Amino acid sequence: MSTEALTSCGAYKEKTSRLCLGVEERFERLIRRRSRFHLGFALLGVSELICLVLFFFSFVESSALAVALGVLFLTGFCYFVLRLYLQTKQPEEMGLLRDLYVESCKGLIGYQEGIAEHHLALAGAVCKLASGLSDAEYTYHRPPRFLEGLGPSLAKLSCLLHWRSVLAMRELLLFYAIEEYVRLVRCAPTTLEIHAALANAYVCLSCLYIDPRKIESEEPLWLPPGRHCEAMWERFRRAAKRAVEELHILKAYAPNDPWVHAQLAYSYHDLQMPEEEIAEYEALLRLQPDDLDTMFKLGIRYFQQAMSAKGLQVYERLKRRRYHKADELMRFYDSALPTPFMG
Asked: Lower CB count within 10 Å: N or C terminus of the chain?
C-alpha cells in the first residue's frame, strides 16, 4: 500500500488518533505525578515551618527546637535530592513513551525496514503526536467548575511549570521523525516526496522555538520567562535554515510548486530576510495570480521595505478585486519610516 493510500485510510487515521490520545494521557499523568511531588513537599515544608513558628517559644527551652530545625532542613535536603533524580529520569521516561508509541505505530502499519512508504507513514504518525501536544502545557491544571474564574491564572501557572517538559517531548518526537526522513534521503536522494516531508518536519521543529509574538496571524498566549530567550532564537535559526535548505532542493526539482514558494516565504519571514521573502511571494503570485491573500501579504512587505510604489500598485489591484482587507493594507504605508531622533 502506498503512503498516500495508507494515510488516507479512515481506519488508519482513527487508530493513530487513538494511539495519540493514549500517549498524551500517559504523558499528562507523568506531568501530574511530578506536580504532586512538588506540591506535596511544598505543603510539608510550609506545615513544618508553621509549626516551628507557632511553638517556637515552647521549643526554645528544650532540645525540641533543634529537632524541629533538623526535620525542616532534612525535608529541604530530601526535596532537592529527589528533584534532581526526577530531572535526570525525565528524559528516560519520555523516551520510553515515544518508543511505546513508535512500536504501536509499527504494528499498526505492518512496518518493514527499508520500505519507503512505511518509513514515511511512521514519521508522519510521530509528527502527528508532536502536533497534538501543541499548547498542552496550558491545560494540565484546571479549576473546578465553581472556580472557573481562576482558569486563566491556573493556565499561566501550568505553562510556567511544564512548558519545558512539553517542549522536550515534542523535540524528542520531531527529532525521531527527522532521523527517519534523513535515513530515507540517503537511500533515495532525489525523491521529492521525502524532501517535502523532511522540509515540513524542519518547519514544525522551527515552530517549537519561534517567538509566538512574531507570528502575525496569531494572538500569542501568555509566555513564560525563558520562552523567547537568545538560546531559543538560536535553535529556531538552525532549524529554519535546515528547512530552507530542503525547500531549495524542492525548488530546484519543482520550481512551479506553489507550496514550496509559500513555505520559503514563511521561513524567510521568520529568519528576517525580507528581500528573499518578497522574491518568493512574487514567484508565488506568478504561479497563482488570483491569490488575493498572497497579494495582500506582498503589499505589506513592499510598504515595510519602503517600496511604496509597488505597494500602491498592489493596493489598486486589491481594490479592483474588491478584496475585503484592501483598505487595511494602507495602515502599513508609513511602516518603513525611521524612528525619530530624540537626541
From this structure: C
